[in-house]
Specification:
It is elongated and about 55 Å long. The protein has one domain. With 94 residues, the protein is mainly α. The longest helix is centred in the middle third of the chain and has 27 residues.
Length: 94
Amino acid sequence: MSVLPSVGPELRAAPAIRGYGLWQVEWVMRVRLTSGGSYATEVLPGLLVIGFGMGCIVAPAFGTATLGVDRQEAGIASAMVNTSSRWAVRSAPP
């Protein structure tokens, strides 16, 4: 039994929206990096924020993308979502 079909798309999107917010916080933290700053005080906090934020984005995205797929096809659907997201990241302009 899955919990995902019992909640609406709004509740599935809420963690992703928070994740995108954390992603923006990390960008602000990255802009404020200095050349003489230490790793522990300037780089590591941003990495922790983006790690948590991306976890909030990826899990609901994969869950929603594979929602209507049969159990036998779930692995293939997940692989397609993963491949598509990787290609999207690599094809984006720098």
